[in-house]
Amino acid sequence: MATSKIITYDLCKSGKNYDDLYKYLKAYSVWARITESTWFISTDKTCVTIREEIDKIIDSDDRIFVGELTGTAAWRNVICDSDYLKKNL
Questions:
Q1: Confidence at 4, pLDDT banded by 50, 70, 90
Q2: Cα–Cα distance, 7 to 77 (Å, whole number)
Q3: How confident is the model at residue 43 (pLDDT cuts 50, 70, 90)?
Q4: Which of 21, 27, 40, 17 is nearest to 86 (CA)?
Q5: Smallest Cα–Cα separation from 38: which of 4, 15, 72?
Q6: Domain span at 64
Q7: At the N or C end, where does the chain have fewer CB atoms within 10 A?
Q8: How many domains does the structure of the chain reveal?
Q9: Sign of the CA dihedral 63, 69, 75, 77?
């Protein structure tokens, strides 16, 4: 069963190419970019699996956090459409 996940990252070196990471995140059928480096996805994959897949894309000194959401959240001025986020959270 698909659950909501939050993914946040820091790509530490300047001049990073985010294209491969964005391509990976946008491959999920339900996704939203919440802030510059925070995304929401819905998937049946575990947090560990997602982290391991992203590890193959980013550098070893970059930071990554993947967590499962409960469905309860609050926000203001997010990049994505608030109604879409509400519907899919």
A1: very high
A2: 18
A3: very high
A4: 40
A5: 4
A6: 3-88
A7: N
A8: 1
A9: positive
